Amino acid sequence: SRVVKLAVIPGDGIGPEVVAEAEKVLDAVTDGADVAFEKTRFSLGAARYLETGDTLTDEDLAAIASHDAILLGAVGGMPGDPRLKDANIERGLLLKLRFALDHYVNLRPSVLYPGASGPLADPGDIDFVVVREGTEGPYVGNGGSIRTGTPHEIANETSVNTAFGIERVVRFAFAQAEKRRQKLTLVHKTNVLVHAGGMWKRIVDEVAQEYPGVAVDYLHVDAATIFLVTNPGRFGVIVTDNLFGDILTDLAGAVTGGIGLAASGNINPDGAFPSMFEPVHGSAPDIAGQQIADPTAAILSVALLLEHLGLSDEAQRVTRAAREDIEARDGSARTTAQVGDAITARLRA
Ligand code: NAD
Ligand code: IPM
Ligand code: MN
């Protein structure tokens, strides 16, 4: 039978709590299946940094890269911890993985599941996916400052946009749009970021010629935040740059019943490197260690992982179990483990 080598990075804060539940679900759905997951656990994140001073060693990176896929919880230490003053776990670990493993598609679906309690009175039928560019934009770390710490400091953070990088993610987004709602919205800020925005717009218009069935529109990012609240049902696929995509997907998570439900995949569609699946949320230091985090986002990330690996039946079973659990929620408090157990029980039923 097939063996999948899975790297597991529980990380910090609520990361280990939600990953434990995601693993329960993965074990349950593959129990008796024709596929076996061989897991390697990597101790990375703020805790590892505090212990050894390492953020991501070359050895760890090479070992992770030799797996078929990655499941990650969240990384990021306690805010204000003076021992983390010189660390940058987010850049040095999470972004390093996304860049080194060429995760140029950051796929973030937003679905309002029946029974999910979102903040909108009349949300409509929300079912879109944000295709967030994952390897460029303001995230590349192309910046610096001079006269640092003085009143005359100048700090630059350059957004890097390449025609190659935009075209490949735009092509992925069109292929998604063809499969769902035949609707693609480019989100950018072409009225101000004329150079980068202009190139995004041109490339979208060019690729659109090959997809006559897909309706294409454009929104400035500020206006996109309006429609994500007033009419999120209008979206099919949103394609956007790395930073705009980051911001929009937290908002999208909030309108679809909370960030505790929002899953994501950092995908290398070419298959040259393992893709990495993780909740959209972070390490949530404000609730860490209390067993009150919702593990559903991590569990739905397992569904994305299974789908990516071509295990569609298993993926659908996980999504269905999570969906049924969401629908059955009555507002009474459950621990992180109780949510994981309930979803696992549905899978085993
Ligand atoms: P966050 O997503 O960790 O938390 C934002 C709010 O959402 C908090 O109130 C938190 O309690 C709540 N929340 C998050 N996940 C939840 C869940 N599963 N169930 C219930 N409530 C949940 O964002 P933040 O506070 O801006 O960041 C905290 C740390 O995490 C920072 O160090 C940040 O850099 C890092 N971070 C990491 C990732 C990642 O590893 N992928 C993503 C985002 C943020
Ligand atoms: C996310 C996070 C990361 C991002 C941070 C922690 C680097 O917010 O996955 O959404 O900005 O991409
Ligand atoms: Mn984010």
UniProtKB/TrEMBL annotation:
Its EC number is 1.1.1.85. It catalyses: (2R,3S)-3-isopropylmalate + NAD(+) = 4-methyl-2-oxopentanoate + CO2 + NADH. Gene3D superfamilies: Isopropylmalate Dehydrogenase. Keywords: Amino-acid biosynthesis, Branched-chain amino acid biosynthesis, Cytoplasm, Leucine biosynthesis, Magnesium, Manganese, Metal-binding, NAD, Oxidoreductase. Substrate binds at residues 98, 108, 132, 222. Residues 5-343 form the Isopropylmalate dehydrogenase-like domain. Catalyzes the oxidation of 3-carboxy-2-hydroxy-4-methylpentanoate (3-isopropylmalate) to 3-carboxy-4-methyl-2-oxopentanoate. The product decarboxylates to 4-methyl-2 oxopentanoate. Homodimer. PANTHER family: D-MALATE DEHYDROGENASE [DECARBOXYLATING]. Belongs to the isocitrate and isopropylmalate dehydrogenases family. LeuB type 2 subfamily. This is 3-isopropylmalate dehydrogenase.
